[in-house]
Amino acid sequence: MRYRLFGTTGLRVSELLLGTMAFDDADQARRLIGAYADAGGNVLDTASAYGEGEALLGSVVADRDRFVIATKYTLTRDATDPNGGGNHRKNLVLSLERSLRRLRTDYVDILWVHVWDRHTPVEETMRALDDAVRAGKVLYIGISDSPAWLTARANTLAEWRGWTPFAGLQVPYSLLNRDAERELLPMADALGLSVAAWAPLAAGKLAGGTRRSDPGSLTGRERAAADAVRAVADELGATPAQVAVAWTRRRSRSVLPLVGARDVDQLTDVLRSVDLTLPDEAVARLEAAVEFRLGFPADFIAECEPSPFVFGDAATRVDGR
């Protein structure tokens, strides 16, 4: 496995990240982490909301400093407490301290904001995150499941005020869910953010586990995508899971698929996707199987770019960066 730099930082992260939400017991977790590490993987992703799963991860990682451990905060610690959840300073401090205890460590490599909290000013969140970094309890920060405008504003504030900016973005991304291409992925490319792409197999729908003999299990759109993935996999001598993950990686070098597995065989299969390069023709067939449009403003801007009416007579003779 090769490594990428995390955002604009010098942190080296493997090209596939391992999600730990499906960890059930210590033996399973040790086997999965061992297989992942043997393949060169070094990023283990968890969250405060995973509860016992976060604690389980902390109990099985033997060489803590060898791994990049990432966790998230936002989701409620106590549903009866009005301040039990959210992106405000109080929840950040208490969630982080609980995560550190569960993970049996004095620092996390990456702390993700789990989801946008519209009631907390982004200035408060960014300052509190920067304080955690300055205290040495967090090394890098990222944001998950939030609007592009919010992430851009947060990093602009960080730049102006000398705070730690977000280095990563975590979003759902797969052949069946390409919404991130509208605003989030272009923003990540422009700001130099790494993109942890969760659900690259669309909850298993693209992994070949649901067969056509069970027509009620997939919608027509999902079935068309699954059939296209399976056909390409058969032609390339690969598995559907490898094709689905390889498709997400092809979009941009900044995309780092966040994969999960329940056993070593599943994980080994997915890890082999790093050796698969999809031909352009195969990519075109995969994308043609599932209708997707960027919509406004991307489609409108694309129409304007070559137009002499918009940019003058030299519109088609300008080379981009």
Provide structural commentary:
The chain is an alpha/beta fold. It has 2 domains: 3-289, Alpha-Beta Barrel (TIM Barrel); 291-321, no CATH class. It is built from 12 helices and 10 strands. The strands form 2 sheets. Strands 3-4-5-6-7-8-9-10 form an 8-stranded parallel beta barrel, surrounded by 5 helices. The protein has a two-stranded antiparallel ribbon with strand order 1-2. The chain starts with a strand and ends in a 10-residue tail after the last helix.
- In the CATH hierarchy, the third-tier topology of the largest domain is known as TIM Barrel
Low-confidence stretches: none
Class inferred from helices and paired strands: alpha/beta
Termini distance? 30 Å
> Strand sequence of the main sheet, in spatial order?
3-4-5-6-7-8-9-10
Backbone shape: globular
Give the percentage of residues in beta strands: 5-15%
Number of helices: 12
Largest sheet: 8 strands, parallel, barrel
How many discrete structural domains? 2
The total beta strand count reads 10
SSE arrangement, N to C = EEEHEHEHEHEHEHEHHEHHHH
What's the gyration radius in Å?
21 Å
Helix content: 25-40%
Provide the CATH top-level class of the largest domain: Alpha Beta
CATH architecture of the largest domain: Alpha-Beta Barrel
* CATH homologous superfamily (4th level) name of the largest domain: NADP-dependent oxidoreductase domain
